[in-house]
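ligand=inosine-5'-diphosphate
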Amino acid sequence: MASEQTYIMIKPDGVQRGLVAAILGRFETRGFQIVGMKMLTPTKELASSHYGEHEGKPFFGGLVDFLSSGPVVGVVLQGKGVVAAARMMLGATKPLESAPGTIRGDFAIDMGRNVMHASDSVDSATREIGLWFKKEEVVSWTSCAAGSLLE
Ligand code: IDP
C-alpha cells in the first residue's frame, strides 16, 4: 500500500468543543504523520469551493455559513492508505449511524455538527489539499522512529 496524503479538518463545532487534540491525537497515535496544519476562519468563497459538489442542495447555504462562521483546523495527513483509513476513523456522515469508536460515533449526534471532515477519495484529497494549502505549507519530515538513529 502506497503512502498517500489526505485532507482532514476539524470543523467549527469541533474547535469550539475543544476536540482538536483528541481528534488529531487519534491519527498521530495510529502512526499517521501531520505534514501540514493551519487554523483559519474560511471565507464563504473558500467554504463554497470546498463543498462545491453540494451546491444547489437545500443544506448548502447553511453548510457554507457554518463552515465560515469560526475557525477550523485544516491538516494534511500522510501515511500508508491514509485516505480510506481517515474515512473509516471518521465514521458515517450521519453521526447517529456512526459506529462507536469512530470520531463521529464518539463525539457527535447531529449531521450539521459532525465535528470533522476527511477527503473521500485520493482525487478529492489532491483537490482539497491544493485548495487549503500552498505547496510550501506542506512539509516533508522523517520520524526518529523510522530509522536506527539511536545507538
Ligand atoms: P461527509 O462530511 O461525511 O464527507 P458529505 O456528503 O460530503 O459528507 O456532506 C458534507 C457535509 O454536509 C456533511 O458532513 C454534513 O455536515 C453536511 N450534510 C450532508 N448532507 C446533509 C443533509 O442532508 N442535511 C444537512 N447537512 C448535510
